[in-house]
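Quick sanity check, Nucleoside-diphosphate-sugar epimerase:
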Amino acid sequence: MRAVGHPPRMHALSRPLIVGVTGIVGHALAERLTLRGGHVLGLSRRSSSTVREVEGLHADLTDAEALRSTIAGTRPTSIFLTAWARQDTEEENIRVNGGMVRDVLAAAGAEGTVQHVALMTGLKHYLGPFEAYGQGDMPETPFVETEPRLDHPNFYYAQEDELFAAAAEHKFSWSVHRAHTVVGYAVGNAMNIASTLAAYAALCRETGRPFTFPGSQQQWDGLTDMTDAGQAAEQMIWATGSPSAHDQALNVVNGDVFRWRWMWPRLAELLGVEAEGFDGTVRPLEEQTQGMEDVWARIAEREHLVESDLDRVASFWHTDGDLGRDIECVTDMTRSRLAGFTGYVRTLDAFASVFDRLAADRIVPHVRT
């Protein structure tokens, strides 16, 4: 996509910009990209990446002028878009999150150095937005990238459209990465099932309650898959440097499938609690943990944890949404495999690794055996 007659440009990964660098996938990208030796830029609203080699940039992602000012002169060669801001309605999600992509790419595109943009979205591309989740005609599983868009308005579609428009204007290649529920390391993230379950287990240990599966019978008995944050990061990095992945939408999951009735007792064992499975009723975590903020604060003080605010560690609403679905979610990875991406992660190992890291960093208490 280079203009004829221009001198050769730097490698696309020599100066990457991660938008949402403190998020669950943004953090995984930061860890991997810094190991490659490039000059990594990390954009977030306020806090900086804990990966020391990342150059921190700060701006409100919904403020176009602030983005232009912050990005001016940074000359990124690639962009990894991993941020989103949850709104009360899908109309607002579209306005805010579509606008975020538009304004980031307008600011970065003006630098004239961007060669590739990788956008992280998710399976709501196939399942529909929160307001119409799983309603109407759904594609059959496994989900494949060639499925047409659903009739419902969806902020993922708005983000894609802004990406396509910017790519045409600024002449860069693009990739869209559709992840399932992400397992990874991040604090204060709105979609973090690993820290949510680790915090829930700590509350169960403290109060003598069983580790009760909160979801539906479909999720308990049916097949499903997930996405390790490192797997998503590796695919985005691979796609940036691989012409076979350019201008493609790509599903990204770990590669294994499981049933929660198999996974739940194994997570309970890792977390030092007694598992209780599906009993015929949905028992949401938001209801199970209602009013337990003071319990968490007590645990945090006693165990010298770094975060005493339960809402900064656990996102019960989002995990309830994942585990309460009455629809099967299995994702096809054929397009990526044929293009050359061979990453594979066992989901149980992904959980175990994150649990260990959260405890080591005093975000959740250690499990005492």
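Posting the structure with no commentary besides this: Confidence is low (pLDDT under 50) at residues 1-8.
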